[in-house]
Structure formats: C-alpha cells, structure tokens
Amino acid sequence: MIWNEHHECMDRQKLAELQGERLRDMVERVYFNVPFYRTKLQEMGIEPGDIRSIDDLKTLPFTTKQDLRDNYPFGLFAVPQHDVVRLHASSGTTGKSTVVGYTHNDIMMWSEVVARSLSMAGITRNDIIQVAYGYGLFTGGLGVHYGAEKIGASVIPISGGNTKKQLQLLEDFGSTAIACTPSYAAYLGEAIVEEKLDRSKLKLRAGIFGAEPWTEEMRTQIQQLLGLKAYDIYGLSEVIGPGVSMECACQRGMHIFEDHFIPEIIDPETCEVLPYGTLGELVFTTVTKEAMPLLRYRTRDLTRLHAEICDCGRTLVRMEKCVGRSDDMLIIRGVNVFPSQVESVLLEMSETKPHYLLVVDRENNLDTLEIQVEVEEQFFSDEVKELEGLRKRISGNLTSLLGLHASVRLVEPGTIERSMGKAQRVVDKRKLK
Amino acid sequence: MIIRQLSVFLENRAGRLTELTGILADNGISISAFSIADTTDFGILRAVVSKPELAEQVLKERGFAVKITDVIGIVMPNKPGALHHALQILTDNGISIEYMYAFASAEASATAVIRTDTPKKAIEVLELHEMELLKAE
Fold first, then answer.
1. Which end of chain A is more exposed for a tag (fewer CB within 10 A), N or C?
2. To the nearest whole angstrom, how far is the Cα of B107 from the nearest Cα of chain A?
C-alpha cells in the first residue's frame, strides 16, 4: 500500500524540479534566519539567488555534528522559539547533546513520512501497533507514534523495556504490529520461547525495526521467533528521526523520502559527490524542515544509493543497509556512543587516566558494553572495597552520561595496547557484517 | 613493629600469578606470608616478603600495579584461643581490621598479618599486653 502515491511515485524529472524549488526556498530561509549559515554562505560567495536548481546543491556547504555542538542548544534554529513546538535531543559529550527542534509543520511532515513508512509495512487503520521504542528525548517513540496515529492505527505507547508487560499486551490486545530496535525484537522473541507462550495466540504480522545496525540473519531469526515480517526503518534525529527512509515489501533497500530529504553520497575524505551505486558517506539536505533545516548534513553512515525503479512502483531512491561509519561512533542498543565520551568521563574523574577500551558484544541478542580501565599505580588500593568503589563510580558516571548501562572492568596498567597512530579504543565483537 | 607488605593488583587471567612468583624467585625474594583477595574480575595479592623494596621495584619494571602497605604481624602460640585473645585486645581498644590472613609455622607458633587504619596504635596496645610481634627481615 502506498500512502502518498503522488510523491512516492513521482516522475524523477518532476521530483528534481520540486527538490530544486524547495532547495531554493530553504537556502533563502537559512540565509536570512541562521547566522551560522549566512556567514558560511557569504564566505563562499553564495547568495540565495544563486541557487536555481537541484544541480546547485553540490556548491553548498556541509554541516557536521560538530556544527550542531558548537551551536548548542538552539543556534541553528531558523524560526523564533515561539514557533518551536517540540524539542528532542540525543546523548553527547558532557552537556553537549545534539538538540533538534520542530515546528508544528515539521511534526506534520514527520507524521507524514512515518505514515508512508508504516504503509510500506502494510499497516492501516485496522492495525494495533505496539510502539516499544523509547518515548522521551529519543525520537523513536514519539516519531512512530504520530505517524501511526496519522494512519489511524490503534497505538499502544508502551515505550521500551518492561518485557513481561510487552508480552502480556501482545497477547491480550492482539497487537498486529510492533516497532522497536531489532535487538529488542529478538529479545522479546526469546522471551516468548522462555515463558512458553503460545505463539499461535499472537496476531503479529509486521515489525518495524531500526535505530541500530542489524543483519539479514537477525531478520530471519526475528521473523521466526515473532512470526511476522520484519521491515528496516532508517532515520536520525538531526534529519527528522525515524522515517527518513524505509523498506517496502520488496525489501531491496530503504526508499528515501526525497521530496523532504535530499540524499547525496560523498567521498568522506575529499567530500566529492559520488555516483549512484558507489559506497560512500550519506549526506542529507532537509529542504522542507522549518525549525532546524540542515544543509548537506554529514550522517557519517556509509552506504550506497540505487535509483532503478522498484517493483513496488515507487520512484524514490533506495539506500542499502549502512555498512559502517566514517567516524568512530558506535550504536549500542540504539544509543549513539562515541569513545570520546568515555574519555571525557575518565578525564573528569581524578582517580583515573584515559587508558580505556570499549568492548561491545551481543549476549542473548542484547548489546553489552564493557569498558576496561587501567588501574593506575597511584590510585591502586589494596583494599577490595576501595577498588570496587572506584569501579562502581566509573560505571555510574559512564552510565549516566551515555544513557546506557556500562559495566567496568579494572585491568592492570599497561595492558591496553598503545599504538603509535590512532589508538585502538574499540573492540566490536558483534557480528554484523 | 610495622611490616612493609607487598600489595599487587592482578587481573584474573591464566598464568599471571605464576609470572609474579617467577619474578620474585629470579630476584631471590622469599615469601613468608601470602594471601589473595579475589573478586569476579580481579584479585589483590598481599604478601610479606624478604625484600619488599626490591620486590616493588622489579614488579613495577614488569608492569604490575604495586603498592607497599603497612601491616602488623602478631606471633602467637599455635593453640586454641590464641587468635581470639589477640583480636580481643584490638577490639577492646577500638582498633578495626581492614583485612587479615594467618599462617602457622612448624615451631608450634602462628602468625596473623593484620591491616588496620591505625597500625601504630595497634602496636602500642599489643605491646602493652606483651604480645609478640613479627619483625621485618
């Protein structure tokens, strides 16, 4: 089922014209309302009138996560605060989370793209959808919620966690769809087996899973365990949240809603734009967003785009599952983690030095994060309670900053490898490729 | 008198302790008392050795986190009630014990190595009660 046939199946030439118009309008808005962009554009000698078509996109400046941090919290907003109706934020290094804002129209647009996404999974007003993404500053819960309501489905805003309750509602309410992270879906599936629930009583038929990388093997496993068809959804809060792109029933990549988010693939080193089919860094320009429009936002996600028309009839380009990152960000249980955040916590504590290693693994389908920290000579106490106390303090500080439980293992000094060049800070044992 | 005890941080991994005892052996350091406190992830070795300063130096050179900790050693007869008598003296004087370990020797005596926050006071009260204390080598 196609929610918005006009925009999703648009002739690509017409789409390019629409994108061009919207880009022109957007550049004008950021030029006159966002000092950061005005300065950048002026430095490059670009005026809003110079943007005539979508071909001019490549002349515009990039935006990075660092720019968002530098303009924390509201510096990149293009509208006055009284027009902002929602704020979301993702975790960041101390006091510097990435903040995003939405106007009423932005929320409408977001609901629209999520409605299109859910329709790709065959969800209609006859469905009961259990939204098991976290509700709160994280965009997952509320993003899917509004889109599902727009379709007219019955929404269960259960949020993440509380597995027993999740299972009970799946059974009692007869939820036909569920949205959560793929690892949580697998975890729920195993809980069904463990609790010896009768799966034939469940009515699940579609799952919308995203916010973290997952594999085809996980898809097979989740489909088996939950008895549904599993769909991949992609999004990031800087662009809008979930609903930037989504898999249709053909499952040959995720269709990007290009009338709102214009994708490009660039070489992360040279920033040169690469042709369709080439692996590179995904970049988005949010042409319709009002509160925080971003020019050529570098996602750091590595993927390929494909423009061949899909069997579903949509003309929108498809992106492959992301194969990695062009920076060192990790996604652990849907939470973005940078090794530098761990470093900042260790540096702030007077009892530790920043010799650490992040070990990411997956046990029973849930990501685990262990942080190995060297015991420094001068902080070594020969009393167990002192060392245990230190371990708990580090763990507590990390957990509160990252928004994710981190277990800490104290290791002997000098055992974490020091290399001459880039330090090896991460061991990712999850097999995702 | 105060005994300078060797404390070493040890990760729980195979062969690590053997490595340590090997280093001590190669340097002619003898161990007269020894204990390991263990947790899930790591252990703390505590030992009374013949040359604590040398032990500290050679172990540090080999990358161990080492610390010298002041402890006291009480020598007592190897018979029922002896340890109780010694601990009672400490308790009566408000001296609390962080940790301890004990060993008995062939000459029918036993030694308890005790770590307290107030080693000097502990020595005073024990001497007052004519308890025999372990001497450093």
1. C
2. 30
Contact between residue A3 and residue A246 where contact means Cβ atoms under 8 Å apart: no
Mutation pick from B16, B34, B42 vs chain A, by most beta carbons of A within 10 Å, is B42
SS3 A33: helix
* Cβ contacts of A387 on chain B, cutoff 8 Å: 9, 39, 42, 44
The number of CA neighbours under 13 Å toward the Cβ of B50 is 7
Alpha-carbon gap: A358 to the closest alpha carbon of chain B (Å): 16
Q: Measured on CA atoms in the order A164, A165, A166, A169, is the torsion positive or negative?
A: positive
Q: CB pairs below 8 Å between A and B: how many?
A: 53
For residue B65, report the phi and psi dihedrals to the nearest 5 degrees. Answer: -85, 115
Rounded distance between C-alpha atoms, residue A179 and residue A199, angstroms: 18
> Would you state the structure tokens that stand for residue A111, as one six-digit string?
């609901």
| Residue B26 contacts A where some CB pair is shorter than 8 Å | no
**DSSP string over A166-207:** HHHHHHHT---EEEE-HHHHHHHHHHHHHTT--GGG----EE
Phi, psi of A290 (to 5 degrees): -95, -50
Beta bridge partners, B26, equal: none
Measured distance CA(B6)–CA(A422) in Å, rounded: 36
User: Would the CA dihedral through A6, A211, A152, A290 be positive or negative?
Assistant: negative
Residue A353 has pLDDT above 80, yes or no: no
Task: Report CA-CA distances (Å) from A172 to A124, A176, A202, A418.
Answer: 20, 11, 9, 55
* Residue A124: pLDDT over 50: yes
pLDDT of residue A381: 85
**Per-residue confidence band for A433, with pLDDT thresholds at 50, 70 and 90:** very low
Instruction: Give the SS3 label for residue B126.
Output: helix
- And the tokens for B42? 């790591």
Nearest-CA neighbor of A404 among A373, A358, A357? A358
* H/E stretch holding A147: helix A139-151
pLDDT at residue A307, as a whole number: 94
Q: Please state, in angstroms and rounded to a whole number, the distance separating the CA atoms of residues A350 and A333.
A: 29
Rounded to whole angstroms, the Cα distance separating B74 from A184 reads 57
Contact A135, A159 (CB under 8 A): yes
CB contact under 8 A, B9 and A380: yes
End-to-end CA distance of chain B: 11
Half-sphere exposure of B29 (CA within 13 A, CB side): 23
Whether the complex's predicted ipTM surpasses the cut of 0.95: no
